[in-house]
Amino acid sequence: MKKQTAGIHHITAIVGHPQENIDFYAGVLGLRLVKQTVNFDDPGTYHLYFGDGEGKPGTIITFFPWADAYQGQIGDGQVGVTTYVVPTGSLNFWVNRLATFAIPFKKADRFGEQVIQFDDPHGLHLELVARAEGEQNNWTFGGVTPEVAIKGFGGATLYSSRPEETAKTLTDVMGLELVGTEGDYTRFKAPADIGNMIDLKMVTGVRGSMGVGTVHHIAWRAQDDADHLEWQQHAMNLGQHVTEVKDRNYFNALYFRESGEILFEIATDPPGFAHDETLETMGTQLMLPAQYEQHRERLVNSLIPIKVRTID
Questions:
Q1: What's the rounded Cα separation, in Å, for the pair 132 and 238?
Q2: Residue ranges of domains in the chain, CATH in brackets
Q3: Tens digit of pLDDT for each residue in 160-211?
């Protein structure tokens, strides 16, 4: 029996000033800052995680914010668009909310669904789609209530330098189901209720370059540590150059760059984000991995002060 990921675990992107990042994803989109920590490979930089009220897999977008860093180019070899799913009947709320905050947007139709397309302050391409599937997000913040709150990811649009090869990776390695093709896009589906629809652009364009406003990688779900090791062997058996397992504190991770140059991660659902904080206090203070705790004072002094605040 072939392996099949449930869907997206998280998406990680590079952005600019961390306070601008928080003001948009918490203040405008109403997501919860579920973890503030540092980049394990560059501890002088934040690693910020946003998701639903519980920080469940399939809801988490994470950021490396570098103030004053150079702008990247969205293109082949990257996630081009990150899609969020909202409750059925809530798109008008979001249209009005984007207008209230003077965020330009446009409407489009794809695979029989209406999507609302817009960019975050640092240039990431985002969209909203309404679907009945997925649990209600019970987090309330800044005028975004559970009845309209973002449930998590709807999916993502991938830009590949070799679309046919990426399509094979999605089906043969990750176990996604081919749904259909519309225009330049082919849709694939994973079995989870959220983070499950992947649209692959089947024509190539400009090559992407990493920097502010670009996605660094997309992570797929593994059930637990044992399943994770199976994924490692499975991907290696199918010709992927897979890293060793890396402990990211809130999940274990392994990585490979598929043939279309998109960086894929496979991440474990457990232990999650409440194991070093309570569910109630998640995201309220800087959490450091053990190897950096002795440097806390220096790191705190080097990081830009941030806070979650409502936006008028």
A1: 35
A2: 8-302 (3.10.180.10)
A3: 999 999 999 999 999 999 999 999 999 999 999 999 999 999 999 999 999 9
